[in-house]
## 1
Amino acid sequence: MLAATGASAQDYSKVEIQTMDGGKTTPAQWVDHKTPYVVSFWFVTCKYCIEEMDAITEVFDSWQEEKPFRFIAVCTDDTRSLAKAKALARGRGWDGFQFYFDVNKELARAMKVTSCPYVFLFDKDGKLVYSHMGYTPGDEEVLFSKIKAL
Amino acid sequence: MLLLVSLTVGAQEHVLSGSIESNSLLDLSPTFYSNNYLKLDYSYGRFSAGIQAEYYPNPMPGYDASLKGIGLPGKYIAWTDKYWNVTAGDFYDQFGTGIIFRSWEDRNLGWNNSLGGGRIGFSTPRDIFSFKAVGGFIRQFPWYSHRSLAGAEAALRLGGVSVEGSLMARMGEGTPALWWSALASWNKGGFSTRAEYVGKPGGNAQTLELGYGQGKFSSAFTFRRLQNMLDPYGMNYLPSLCMEQAYMLASLNPYTTFADGEFGGSGDVYYSVKSWKFHVNGCWIWALPSALHNYDIMRMAYRDINIQVEKRWGRSLKTVAFVSIQENSPSHGDRKATNAQNVFVLDGLYRFPGKLSLRVQAQYLYSQELTRDWMAGSVELSSVDGWSVHVQDMYNHGDTKEHYYEAGASYTRGGFKADLAYGHQRSGMICSGGVCRWQPEYTGGILRLAYHF
């Protein structure tokens, strides 16, 4: 019997994307069975993406004390913008996030991301529990309420 | 919310996911235009398969008119394990930075140059060595063109150092052409660098990137030289080095890469302190003498400098001041005339107590060339509930005295988005990721729908 569920997303768990130092990672490697994690797709000229990550940065440390979670920022810029994306992330003080680079949008395509920002929330076992497209101030609080509910 | 239809059988799980996207325009003539996409992916253990169907009863303005019709241009089956992956069917990929080869899709641009054929990849534990080979025919909706590519790439990574080499043959247009590339990168602490050389019959390209960061200061610089790098197969990726502008008036006259021959560099510096954030960007491109008819020295093709200062005033208000000083040569340096424009922007975001927030922008472009001065403004009211309404106007008060306006509303919930707008769109370049296409002028209503399941 087929059932509509928030199932573990095996269809994209093996898609390889780049790490900060030029290595490879897959979504399957992000599951640590200890903490939930947010996967956020962004690019350097996406104003709303930057607003969202700034808003989360401002409260990230205090939220960590309340409910630990990881924030994985997946940059969908092409390879030309890699250096710029790294510089932007450091310059805006996005210190607590993990950064990966989906330079040919393989993971974005597999996760059906056609516009940014797009956030996905996974529980500690990698099960998808919430997703949201776009950003309006206050969306980060809705996201954190979903994290706290896990 | 993204829902995956799943069925668990033993330890394995069937997973089906998909997306639907529809963009339609009814203009005043009246003519109806529409681009529609359906994507479905299925996986079971190490096996996956999928399709992409596209339907263009009448392609949107600015898109290739030959797209008209219905087709199944995307279809694949794939098998992946820890070290190997094999794909048969239609796929996207790239070698190096994409100058030698990139197949990709961008629906905003109407660009899709997927390959139909096969791909095999292998990587060792910890990804110290990896290899992949690809081959296939280039997409020509709804089927394939007679042109094909075949190539391979190998990469070795040790610590923060990696080296890559690739070969790509292009076949189907006269004599087959062999392109080659070598890339090296090194990361240590806050420092990173990457260099690439790409060669082809009669042409070559060199790229150098440097990055450095310390605390909340960071910088990135890219230099690139292109000599006769046009690709009749349309399978090389040559985006503009210059910053892709986000504000309406700053993006009126974007720079597009001069693949015949250019040399240039761009740099970004970021710094933040307390509630202030600073960004300075500059770009300077020269046309190479070999690509010019009237000069035998390098000539300026484009330059700009962009300065952005952001300030957060407590929890509720953020403001941005932005200045862009631009000069471009419409002949890519082949004639003396250049166009200069200075753009000034004030941008504010205010969050009301509760669910609402308001964005307001005011923009001014000062120029003595082309259609001279412009002004623009926009207001957007949005709610955490997913509703958003906006109005914007761009007015040329220099020569044409014409308004380009839009009013619209959107609703987003989980993986669903609906966007309805009515406006008068200016003709000009639409850019995405440093690549641009021509957008003709139109007046009408646009409905955009997207749903991911």
Note: Helices of chain A lie at 47-66, 82-91, 106-110, 139-148.
## 2
Amino acid sequence: MALHKLTLRELSDTFGKGEVTAAEIVRAYTLRINQVEPKVKAYISQIKDAAMVQAEALDQKLKGWRRTMPLMGMPLAIKDNICTQGVLTTCASRMLATFVPPYDATAIARLRGQSYLLLGKTNLDEFAMGSSTENSAFGPSRNPWNLSAVPGGSSGGSAAAVAADECVAALGSDTGGSIRQPAACCGVVGLKPTYGRVSRYGLVAFASSLDQIGPITKDVADAAMLLNVIAGHDAWDSTSANLPVPDYTKALKKKDVKKLRIGVPREYFAEGLDPEVEQAVMAAVEELKTLGGEIKDVALPTTNAAVATYYLIATAEASSNLARYDGVKYGLRSKQNKTLLEMYMKTRQEGFGPEVKRRIMLGTYALSAGYYDAYYAKAQAARTLIRQDFEAAFCEVDLIVTPVMPTPAFKLGEKSEDPLQMYLSDIYTISVNLAGNPAISIPCGFSKTGLPIGLQLIGRPFEEETVLRGAYAYEQATDWHKKRSTVR
Amino acid sequence: MQISKQEVERVARLARLEIAEAETEAFSKQLSSILTYIETLKTLKTDGVEPTATVLEQVNVFREDKSRPSLPVEKAMANAPESEAGHFAVPKIINET
């Protein structure tokens, strides 16, 4: 049995029945990683040996016992900006190249509570700033469908690892599309939960009012399974919502979208959208209609302001959050440190890459005396309008359907010289972070060149169940999610 | 929107970021182009619109003012670039102007 080809649900069932041991699972994934990782470069650190030790201990412990927890023995990959106790967490930055967290992120502690197996930490754009993983201090990851294309970003390593069967599922983080966009590029499923649904404790902060941890998986059922474990209130994150967590897998009982009103925002189908992507997304809308959905036009009139709003708010928050990298408590310290000020300035020069510096500069500028009202305050007001757009639209519909990105995955190097072009590739995902809603990316087709295309379903805050139901119905009616990358 | 090299240097100092001469030039160009795009926000009417700082309902989260278990000193210090007797060590700051 080729264990690496199974979905999380299938592997969990197989393990639950005692048909396979945890050690066998790790062995199978070790083989697979050794085979394709030199080409895909999804991981920053692999800890297969530690995973094997854990797996053997788990097998020993389970002798004669029932295996009840869904993630028990499941080999996962974790984005390298999520703290894992005792395991290097670099954020793909020279600044944190040797940082070993003394604690687990809450999402990780919950996985650990189920005895999951950590295979390794995945690549990202430095501090999650980027849309291609090209901003990683340790080199880019590759798209398993076409090794000369980017896997998207910033959770590109997690998406590539899932697409290349180098783990059964992964966690990513999404500040402006960083789960959904790489999921679309790599033909897998990526879910950004509602802001506050999953604790951010232990997620290295980029833009605190936008960041969310979420699952990247092979199909929709797997995303529901992972969300079940990581969602919920956490006393260590005062912005995590104190609301009950439903069993998300129950949202998958219905295979139709009857009685669901589904909105198509015309602003998302304007200039700049690749015709192949438009065609695939519109065909998906037709499919949702066939499945019983009532399709309606909706307006999100502030859409055009979203990229500008996002790049002011996210960079302002980042400039503040990244002030902590000063060479004092952890991370890099420059050897040129005769004075404290010199230590700060040189440490930050040596530790940060160009995109991180650019965003710190932009955020500092937007917050600086004399510019605050024109930029930051203006962006906060625009954010209110963007949020109100969604509130108004969701009075008329239950789900909104859009593309995930304007084009399929672009080539490595294609946009890395032009930051603004790179920012514009997030145009369909960032509004959702500004408004706080949940959204999923699922495969809905392929370009002529064989690159995956993603479909985005957006729901009301804390209605992940509706998002999952819509995504599952579409997935069950189509075969896109069964197609696997050919990397070997 | 033009961001001069002097402006770049001013912002870099505020951000405690040393930047090389070549970077100053590149940032001046790139930030100008990004801010020119961002200027499009000016056309958006926001008179009387309340700002959004967070999408959550604004509630204060309190906890009891009681000590609770936390990281032991050795663990908290384990990543320190330099430490002395359980403290973070930094370059001398007294007499610095």
Note: The helical segments of chain B are 5-14, 21-38, 73-77.
